[in-house]
Amino acid sequence: MRDLKQIVKAYDVRGVVPDQWDEDLARAFGAAFVEVTEATSIVVGHDMRPSSPGLARAFAEGAAGCGADVVEIGLCSTDQLYFASGKLDLPGAMFTASHNPAQYNGIKLCRSGAAPVGQGTGLDRIRELVEGWTAADGTVAVPVHPGESGTISRQDLLQAYADHLLGLVDLGSVRRLKVVVDAGNGMGGHTVPTVFDGLPIDLVPMYFELDGTFPNHEANPLDPRNLVDLQARVKETGADIGLAFDGDADRCFVVDERGEPVSPSAITALVAVRELARARAGGEQQPTVIHNLITSWTVPEVVREHGGTPVRTRVGHSFIKQEMARTDAVFGGEHSAHYYFRDFWRADTGMLAALHVLAALGEQQGTLSALVAEYERYAASGEINSTVQDQAGRTAAVRAAYADLPGTTVDELDGLTVSGADWWFNLRPSNTEPLLRLNVEARSATTMEKLRDEVLALVRG
């Protein structure tokens, strides 16, 4: 019997196809999703991976067999699926493994209005149902409701998605920009042409061919190695900006005119300023902006400087979305380049963040590097991963070394965060791999590098 705990993660379903899961299990997940959400209709989309169409159709069949009508939107980005869930007011399922290698696939699930489904909000119950329908030999017997089968229909929502985003950001009066976009053979190659159509943009496309085998590089811009081609093309073409999307195009990374990466914290601060201004113009006195605990000190500083209230939360979209709902926050940002908007059903959309950056750049005559300089106040390490079998033991060793130093504070909201007067670091375990993830920030590069190396020495033994 397959161990579903290996593929049902904190926020989604993800594993190797067909070794860990296949269309039979996808069909069962579709039925279980309908049982748990009690949905009468759902929407389903998928990315460009070779296994995605078959998995998505099997899920739809399982859902229809339990009486739900299914709207298939076909090829889409994850944020396009969230748009469909919000626009149609239906629970949704997106088949993607985001930036993972080609042999992986997964499902991101949401309730109506793009509300997240994760552990504690339905995903654990879905797993339990599928486990109950799976025999010891791995065969799956999905319950069928005779006479109650739902329909499966098709709808194209790409233009509606583009129109919605462009209704949230005014790009009509910006100066013309040369923009290089690296889609990484992922879903950005599907969405960018439609969203950018008619804008004052000279588009330089890279790897727009949809190919779930990722022939050019992994569709994971968080890894600096996957930005090299984009950086070179920006410099070669004299572009104003470079954008890189991950495989399912829900995250967007930004490169300035020099080919230098702009930190997601700086993008969070820049977009926060724009969203705060719009909210205050609409009469809100002190709008809230959410940021996870790994974003730069710059983010809460900028939010306060522009009349907002910063709220710190754990890493992860389910925590961000819960806090956005609780506080009615106008915007939220993470260090991993996930950006969340109240006007997008509190869901994350890299495309909308990219449009904000393009608008901010095009509304003035300076370079992107000059524009974001205000939001790059500190020296940061970026996220450094270390393979560690004894995650708890190594974390305890780091805590023991720093917790009692004069002037330090410790919190364990998400992993271990230790803060001093001129620095902070966070060390947290991966949810899915034997990794410890380290982020360090300090007022000077020298302090940051020294602290980074000291903590890594303890982590790696």
UniProtKB/TrEMBL annotation:
Domain Alpha-D-phosphohexomutase alpha/beta/alpha: 6-131, 160-259, 270-378
First and last residue of the signal peptide: none
InterPro entries in the record: A-D-PHexomutase_a/b/a-I (IPR005844), A-D-PHexomutase_a/b/a-I/II/III (IPR016055), A-D-PHexomutase_a/b/a-II (IPR005845), A-D-PHexomutase_a/b/a-III (IPR005846), A-D-PHexomutase_C (IPR005843), A-D-PHexomutase_C_sf (IPR036900), Alpha-D-phosphohexomutase_SF (IPR005841)
Coiled-coil region: none
CDD domains in alphabetical order: PMM_PGM (cd03089)
Keyword Zinc in annotation: no
Record GO biological process: carbohydrate metabolic process
Segments forming domain Alpha-D-phosphohexomutase C-terminal: 383-457
GO molecular function: intramolecular phosphotransferase activity; metal ion binding
Keywords in alphabetical order: Isomerase, Magnesium, Metal-binding, Phosphoprotein
Cofactor(s) needed by this chain: Mg(2+)
The family this protein is said to belong to: Belongs to the phosphohexose mutase family.
NCBIfam families associated with the record: PRK09542.1 (NF007088)
Identification of the protein by name: Phosphomannomutase/phosphoglucomutase
